[in-house]
Specification:
single chain, alpha/beta, D-Maltodextrin-Binding Protein, domain 2, 2 domains, six-stranded mixed sheet, 10 helices
Length: about 280
């Protein structure tokens, strides 16, 4: 074998090697997903199950790495980090979803919904707009789920909404619509990140919060704010979103499989967190 032939064969092997490497790099994607859901909760377990199903359905080409419990920050932090590529996906509530698509604010109008039939009616009417506008704003909405109902939890006993006026109420930092509403209701609001709620309760910075019971219990807030006003204040809708840059790197066949898995798991989770 002469020198030219050897050199040519080495060149061919190098090209094949590079092509194989590029294909493998393109196919195998690890999606970094953040959520406020604490580790071990039902919501977190659903995400873990979804990740396992994704890996299986895509033959390992798509893997999910979950950052639970707000370790990445509040939901607005998650969205900001998705936009700059530090993470790729989020399992977020109405608060974060409305930051991407303002239409989601309709799901947290106080005392507007009193049953899941009410929620389903509005959701079915708006569903096309919810998905389409979210995608126009740079995110792929995979599914929506029921996170539960928000109730008021307070350090001191509360019997009517009027009792909320004497409390220092948590409000999401950056949620200016709720801030305006609380001001009109004469509520003393304290804006902060959801990740600071427990320390805020412990130090007395806040004395009352409107959240779903599962989250209050899992975050140990109930040990301090152990009084609940038995009135549904609002519905919490959750959603799983992936930034479009990451989503578009996934093969169409795998996208279809992932969407089907996400929808199936989302549907199975609906209404599970209702307070009986």
């Amino acid at each position: 074998m002469n020198t030219f032939t050897k050199t040519y064969l080495k060149y061919i092997f190098l090209v094949i090697s590079l092509m194989t490497t590029n294909v493998d790099a393109k196919k195998k994607i690890t999606i970094k997903m953040a959520t406020l859901a604490p580790q071990g909760t039902e919501w977190h377990s659903m995400l873990v199950g979804m990740g396992q199903e994704w890996k299986k359905a895509t033959n390992g080409e798509v893997r999910l790495r979950i950052y639970p419990g707000g370790v990445v920050g509040d939901e607005r932090d998650m969205i900001r980090k998705m936009r700059i590529g530090q993470i790729h996906a989020g399992a977020i509530t109405t608060e974060g979803l409305s930051e991407i698509n303002p239409y989601f604010s309709i799901f947290y109008v106080p005392v507007f919904y009193q049953s899941y039939d009410d929620v389903d009616f509005v959701r079915n009417e708006l569903e096309p707009d919810l998905y389409e506008k979210t995608e126009k704003n740079g995110f792929k909405l995979l599914t929506m789920v029921d996170v539960g109902w928000a109730y008021w939890f307070s350090v001191d006993p509360i019997y009517t909404p009027t009792d909320l006026e004497k409390n220092k109420i948590f409000s999401w930092a950056g949620d200016y619509k709720s801030a305006q509403l609380y001001k009109k209701l004469n509520y003393n609001q304290v804006p902060m990140a959801m990740t600071d709620v427990l320390s805020g309760m412990q130090t007395g910075l806040i004395t009352c919060i409107g959240l779903n019971p599962m989250y209050v219990l899992s975050q140990q807030v109930f040990g301090i704010a152990d009084n609940m006003l038995n009135m549904k204040w609002g519905n919490l809708t959750g959603g799983i979103v992936v930034d479009l840059k990451t989503w578009n790197r996934i093969d169409k066949d795998n996208q279809d499989k992932m969407l089907a898995i996400a929808k199936e798991l989302g549907d199975s989770f609906k209404r599970k967190t209702d307070l009986k």
